[in-house]
Amino acid sequence: MTGTAYDVLARIRAARTAPQPAGERCEMCSEPIAGEHQHVVNVEGRQLMCVCRGCYLLFTDDHAQLRYRAIPDRYLSFPDFALGRREWELLQIPVGLAFFFRNSALGRTVAFYPGPAGATESQLDLDAWNGIRAADPRVDMLADDTEALIVRVPDDETQPPECYLVPIDACYEFVGRLRMLWRGFDGGQEVRAYIDDFFDHVTERSKVIAA
Hints:
Distance between the termini: 40 Å
Low-confidence stretches: none
């Protein structure tokens, strides 16, 4: 399916009055979509939308001033990233797991960490973050609003933090799943197993980008 943004809006208006058959559908034009599909993000509202391929392609221009942005599907690994335990402490994130992305509506990088209530925003120390960014230019590979740097700091202090660039929808899916599994104060064994599985999957999918 092809067309302009105006075509999409016309299909949305038509779809609102037409009876909809069962099954998952594009949230923009109501076309049927598969279980595995792509997403766009509402930049201001931060909502993710499930969309068909045609609608997804309308919002892939990173340089256009768009209300929606298509979420890429690339995974990158950043070994030897310039974020050690000392830098993590300066960021003042209370747990050893968080994701960071640049919110273009706010004009700054924001940080979230998972917990029993879902994704919680951390009051990111921007001076500390800018120091990390200056020390490792791979940070600037992140596309605004649609990609995140996800970081895990192992309990074993002899192991360095793990850093990956991932699609922002993967982060939200990850946090949502953790919320469903969370038990007790620290999440429980099922949460720890899921985190390990998630990072194994990310590692397998990621292309390594050297410093």
